[in-house]
Specification:
The protein has 3 helices and no strands. By secondary structure, the chain is mainly α. The protein has one domain. Helix 1 runs antiparallel to helix 2. The mean pLDDT is 90.
Length: 91
Amino acid sequence: MNENLIMGIAKDAVWTALLVAAPILGGSLLVGLLISILQATTQIQEQTLTFVPKIVAVFLILVIFGPWMLNILMSFTNNLFLDIPRYILIH
């Protein structure tokens, strides 16, 4: 294995991780921002108020984007397995 091949695998792995994590992180960030604005306007400073909406949002995001996220992960894993002969032949 040469450095370019390893860097290519690492780049694909990082890109896949970013694609899979982006909907969950973006959704929880948006819900957290909306709850923070609500807390600032109503002056309700309850710390536990943010947890339940975020958990519900993450669950809904997983239900909605779960098949897409699984497809991305399966595609990455399938490509790794299919390229094993190419990895072995390159010394």
